[in-house]
Amino acid sequence: MGNEPASRGDDTTLSRRRFTLGVAGTALSGLAGCLVRGESSDLSGEIRIDGSNTVLPHSAIVSEEFQWRNNRVIVPVRGSGTGAGFQRFCRGETQVQNASRQIIDEGDPTDEGSLCSANGVDYVELDVALDGIAVFTHPDNTWCDELSLEELERIWEPGSDVQTWSDVRPDDPDWPDEEIELYGRDPASGTFDFFTKAITGELGAIRSDYSASADTNVIVRGVRGSQYGLGFGGAGYYQENEDDLKLIAVESDEEPGEYYRPYQEHIESEAYSPLTRPLYAYFRTGAFDRREVRRFAEFYFEEIDGEATEADIVGDDETLTWTQWSARRAGFYALGDGRLEENHDRLREALEAVVE
Questions:
Q1: Nearest to 5, CA basis, from 27, 44, 35
Q2: Residues 305-333: pLDDT tens digits?
Q3: Tens of pLDDT along 210-248?
């Protein structure tokens, strides 16, 4: 009991893998609900969060810091998955929904937006962090340093005729006539949805003869075990396995002919496009009539303070907000200033509409 937030601890960095291993399963209510120390305030109540297991570490860190400053507010955070979380959120069972993709709201009576409408649940969508999807090979791959978007599409599109590395660049004698072994996320993941839409142009459109997994660690093991392997997954997984993988530069859709790797500066500047994606938090606006929910939403965009400013994830002369700080600490990437202000404005408008 009495977990002290990271801004007061010695451990100023925390990977997504370490965080996940530390919470045993997909639920994390431990950082919340059992705080007995921290600072008192005039706020109290419970704010329930569910949704993406991927985004869970970020919101858990934000809620941990918020609870330390408001020790009579309880913020249990669960990671039932983006789809399952939206079902609860749209039934009004939670106040905040984490998501690794946007809500599905295409007018179909069975989709998530229709469920929210049927239950009178209005919401505001906020970008809270950035993530990059990395493309990687075995470190002994000496021929491939970069891939164009056209090459990636030909490799991954449904019915692809690319079977060997030489099929990708038939005019380059350095590319071997060896079968490509492909590894990627399965259709249940938001990473799969985003990658397929960005690379093949259609959500879910992908060749069927690749090794699909719900666990990116399995993808990493597959690629590092084959000299001719190629895979994709969250950039944080590459950072944790950089001695076993080779990171491939991907052509920019904003600057054709320019190639970027998913380094922090390229993701936070969004130069690594189209494979930089936002991660989301949805707040139920009906819950903003509760002061503790309003203050929690605003906390995401407040400047960090205390020992948090001295963490090694904070650059010289940088001023971060809690959502930016928590993103880096969880192994994601901070929103750029423009995207941060755009989302802060969206929250202000939602709050003003309720207060009025």
A1: 35
A2: 999 999 999 998 899 999 999 999 998 99
A3: 999 988 899 999 999 999 999 999 898 898 899 999 999
